[in-house]
Structures are given as C-alpha cells and as structure tokens.
Amino acid sequence: MTERVQHLKNFFEEVRAGRLTGIRCGRCHALALPPKQFCSSCGGREWTAVPLEGEGTVASFTVIRVAPRGFAGQTPYAIAAVELREGPSLLGRIVDIPLEGLTVGLRVRFRPIVEDERTLVGFGPA
C-alpha cells in the first residue's frame, strides 16, 4: 500500500470501504492505529500500510446515555476500547451486541459503520 493511510481522512476512507488498516514504523517496526505523523516508540516517520484482520477483545467499554449533538437519537449505545489481535487498541462503537451482553474480554470483529456522510469504526460479534 502507499502512504495515503498515514492521514486520518484516508484511514476513514479505508474504513468506509470495509478495510481496517494500520501503519508499521520502518525504523522500530511498531504498529500504530489510527495513523499518526510520528512513531510513539522511536519518533520515526517511515510508515508502511498494514492490513489488519480486525479481530480483538473488549478491554473496556462505556454506555453512552446522553450523547453529543448528532447522536442523540441513537442512545443508548456503547463505545469500547478493543485490543486487536495484532497488538494496538482502537476505540469503536459496539453494534449487534446487546448492551447487557457486553463484557470485558468479549471477542469482537471490526465492522464499518456508514451513516450518510459519516463513517465510524464499529465492532460486532466475532
């Protein structure tokens, strides 16, 4: 892949297309997600795009009952920190899992959420 996934806008274009893509540092080989300009481990800027499977486990979560403007009609919903099998963690909205069934350690899989012009990272049952 090319450098285009280094930018957040392009990261979400990939999500919209159903692909979860991270970036790997060319100096220290650390994996980052979502894309960033500098490597958190070594400060490098030599990135290579890496396709990710999108499977992981819920590390923590919260249920949103009072949502920000634009999401108010969708409450309640859950946001989870998911530790991906490849190592990094990513925040995403939980879909197709009842709130009462959501637990730390639950296995989930990446699911893109596309609502009109808005694209979100989502996770559903594995």
Please, how many helices?
1
> Which structural class do the helices and strands define?
mainly beta
Estimate nothing, just give the exact number of structural domains.
2
Question: Would you identify the regions where 5 or more consecutive residues have pLDDT less than 50?
Answer: 1-5
- What would the principal axes of the Cα set say about the shape? globular
Describe this structure in words.
The chain has 126 residues and is mostly beta strands. The protein has 2 domains: 3-51, no CATH class; 55-125, OB fold (Dihydrolipoamide Acetyltransferase, E2P) (Beta Barrel), CATH 2.40.50. The chain is 7% helix and 42% strand. It has 1 helix and 8 strands; from the N terminus they run αββββββββ. Strands 4-5-6-8-7 form a 5-stranded mixed β-barrel. A 3-stranded antiparallel sheet has the order 2-1-3, covered by helices on one side. The longest helix has 9 residues, at 8-16. It is globular and about 45 Å long. It starts with 7 loop residues before the first helix and ends with a strand. Mean pLDDT is 91; it is low at 1-5.
Comma- or semicolon-separated keywords:
single chain; 126 residues; mainly beta; OB fold (Dihydrolipoamide Acetyltransferase, E2P); 2 domains; 5-stranded mixed β-barrel; 3-stranded antiparallel beta sheet; 7% helix; 42% strand; disordered N terminus
